[in-house]
Structures are given as C-alpha cells and as structure tokens.
Amino acid sequence: MKTNPCCLLAAVPAAALLSGCGETTTSSPRLPNVIFIYADDLGIGDLSCYGATKISTPNIDRLAAQGQRFTNAYATSATSTPSRFGLLTGMYPWRQQNTGIAPGNSELIIDTACYTLADALHDAGYATAAVGKWHLGLGPAGGTDFNTEIRPGARDIGFDYEFLIPATVDRVPCVFVENGHVVGLDPQDPITVSYDHKVGDWPTGAENPELVKLRPSQGHNNTIINGIPRIGWMTGGRSALWVDENIADTITAKATRFIARHRDEPFFLYMGTQDVHVPRVPHPRFAGKSGLGTRGDVILQLDWTIGEVMRTLDSLGLADHTLFIFTSDNGAVIDDGYQDQARELLNGHTPMGIYRGGKYSLYEAGTRVPFIVRWPSRVQPGEQPALFSQIDVYRSLAALTGAELPAAAAPDSRDCLPVLLGETQTDREFIVEQNLNNTLALISGPWKYLEPSDGPALEFWTRTELGNSPEPQLYDLREDPREQHNVAAEHPEVVAGLLARLAEVREAVKPTVR
Q: What is the strand order of the sheet 181-182 is part of?
C-alpha cells in the first residue's frame, strides 16, 4: 500500500464530505468483476435509450434495459482530463493546478503517491487494466520521452496492464503505448513531439492544405497524420502511427483479450473509447450508415464496441458476475475542430437533449451525461433518478469490494453504493460541476448555483456558452431544466446558502503546490 495515500497532503475532509448516499450493503455471492467505460464527448441525447430518435444504439440500449439508467448523473467536469482525474483519484480536479486539458506530451498528472481507484481494487485482489484513451499524461515532470520506457504511467498508479492512447486522437503523438513502450516503434526513427513549435519536416495543415483529407474548421492545422491535421507537431515513429479507421477495433480487441485472460479472477477494466471525439473517422463498416454524417457513424461504432464487450462477457459466462458501468467524460460538442458536417447533418438529432451548453460549459449539457449500471445478479432493471456524481464511483466501488482505503484517500468521494446499484433513490446532498475555466457550480435539491466569473461567455472555437457571468446565477432545475430563467435576484437567501456551501467544499481539503 502506498505510504502517501492522496494526491495532496490534506486534512481529512469534513464529515459532511464523507457521508454516504444511503445505507451500504455489500453482501454478494462473489466478488464481482468491474468494467468502467468512458465514452468521449457523448451527449445525454446521443443514445436511443435516452430518447434519441434519429439514431439507434441497440447494444447500449440492451445494457440499459438490463440495468439502471441514470437520469440525473454528472461528470465532475466539462472536459476530458479533469473528469478522468476526478474519477481515478476521488478528488475534485480543480484542487490541483495542472489538471486542465493535457497536451500529448504532458507528464503524468496524477502523483504516483496518490492512492487511486486502481490501487484500491488492485490491493483488494483485482487484476487491473487501463485500455484506450488516457489523457492524464505520461512520464516524469518535464514531459514524455516516447523513445524509451515511459515511466511513470498507468502501471505506477495501480494498473497492472496499460494499452493507451496518450491524449486525444486529434493530438500528437498518434501512437499507442503498451506497458510503457510505443507499439511498433523503430528505434532508428525516434519520435519528437512539440506543442510550442514545428519539429521535423512533416507536412502541416497550415503549410500543405492540399494534402488534407479532413479539413479543420478551427485550430487543427499542425502535423498531418493519415491525411488529418492534428494539434501539435511530431516527426518520427512512422512505423508506429495508428490508422484512425482501426482505432476502435484495436482497443476493443485489447479490452476483450484482457477480460478473457483474467476470466478466472476478479478484474477491473478501465476503458476509454476515442469515440465520439474528433477527428471522427469511422471504420468502413460504419461509414455512411447512420445518416447523420461521421458523428453519427462513430456513435454506431461506439455502440459496436460496447456490444463486443457484452458479447465477450456472455461467451465466457461472466455477465452475471460483472458490474458494468458506462458513461461519458463530459457532454456533447458538435463542431469541435473539423469540417465533418456534424451540424449540417444532424437531421433533427439533439446531442445535448433539452439542455443548455455542451462540452466546456457549466450549463447542464456540459456535465449531465449518460450513466448506465448493469450487474444482472444484483442490480434490478429500472430508472435511477437520484442525483449522482462520478466523483463517488471511487468510494462506492471500494465499499463494494471491501477495499481498505487510507484515511486521506479519495477526499471528495462518498460511498453511494446503494444508489449506484439502484437499491435506493437517495439524492446526493450536493454535487459540484466545473467548466473549462474552472468556474464552479453547485446543485442541491432543485437549485443550481453558478458562481460569478470574469471568464469569457463563449468558448473561443466552438462558441459554446460557458456559463461564465459576472453576476451569480440561480436556476430551479425542476421547473427550468433548460436554465433559461436566472432567479438569483428573487431568491437571495438560496444564493447565500449555496455560496456558503460551495465555500465549505472549497475549504474542506487544502491543496498543496506541486
């Protein structure tokens, strides 16, 4: 067990932060396997089991029909890196300085002294794996050297096995990392990566637009890989470059092989899909099949991925013994950097559902996400309306598996196992949301309070409403789920109470400067 259990040197949180979401019961015929799958940029309106009518997701629908479909669940943050950080550490990412959207050559942003969710399940007897999108950095302070064994990485924070997309598929380097080594790398062709300036002589979107097969709508105009200009510059590693059309097949195969390899022991699979993040490049099996352009096609590809994992469990007789959680790291975005006609081809599809904002935003569509839990031998099918946050997955799974946590581990996470398993519908007392600019909101009961901020009103590239305003905002989500009517002036006492609660949350754990 690690000697320094949390990512920061902190006082143990106030009792209010550690209280649970109902009485925990952990009786089970056997210790379950655990699969947690993060989709990328998937909106609450993107799935037919959540009401989408322009696209069909039969595998995810079956997962939902056999388990609990949450209607009031939230990611901690409206972007990728911080949400993943919060899930694995049980700590709100805004407590640590370097948890914004990570570049592809970022250092590992989770301190190896942190006692993570993977550490907890590993020490409880689980085989553990991280497969797919990572986006939490790799290597030591100063950045990643992709030409040697890359440490620290996922194996240094509780995972036995790693097969990783280092950052996002629109960022260089466009290679896979397996157990600390770039897959297929020729040592005579070393990789160089920069996010500050061009390296090498490979073509870029800015300099060689005639070589581009998927044109940027904004921002993505650096090194061209597979005809797609990316964020950042790279050269070298040509033999290791992924083929975008094959990414889903590759990571799904790695995930299902891990399941098969560990069928006779408890396992924890943490998987991040690249779908439906840009660039949206479906395999030919799915290209043109949705009628909604490539964004719809990669939703079909995502559904296939979930179906393959489900079929693997069924074929091995493991479905009844596996707790399967499926969700998204943040809400939907439509045009996020490429001219893929995602907006023009929506055809009435509403990725954000009825909600305001989207990825990057403090409004509901930024963090209110699909969340499905299936465990056939324990979880009864149904709808879960309880207020729930991904920050609580850590302590809930620790309670389920009997993991013993150091006192300072997962300082913001609560044991909400009965809610996770659909055994009670008790709302969390409050949840905290975070936007791109680290502005915070707090939801408690029907009320949602957005703290004042001098940040921009719109995200620069996507023009998404961020929820930043110099004035406090208050919405009654039961009466106004679309957040159209700011009633802060009419309810100053509610604003004062939620402001005080948010201040208490901020002060409950004291971060240190790394």
A: 181-182, 177-178, 161-165, 127-133, 267-272, 33-39, 322-328, 371-374, 68-70, 382-384
pTM recorded for the entire structure:
0.95
Interatomic CA distance for residues 5 and 1, integer angstroms:
8
When pLDDT is averaged across residues 92-112 and rounded to a whole number, the result is: 97
- Find the radius of gyration of the CA atoms of the chain: 22
Q: Average pLDDT over the chain, rounded to whole? A: 94
Convert 251-288 to b/e letters by CB count within 10 Å (16 or more is b).
bbebbbebbeebbeebbbbbbbbbbbbbbbbbbeebee
Burial class (CB in 10 A: 0-12, 13-18, 19+), 151: middle
Q: Which residues contact 345 (CB under 8 A, 6 or more apart)?
A: 291, 292, 293, 295, 296
How many Å apart are CA 382 and CA 496, to the nearest integer?
A: 36
CA–CA distance, 142 with 119 (Å, rounded to integer): 25
Could you tell me if 369 and 75 are in contact, meaning their C-beta atoms sit under 8 angstroms apart? yes
Alpha-carbon distance 149 to 177, whole Å? 10
Per-residue model confidence (pLDDT) at position 385? 98
The amino acid that residue 506 corresponds to is R
Residues 6+ positions from 211 with CB-CB distance below 8 Å: 203, 224, 227
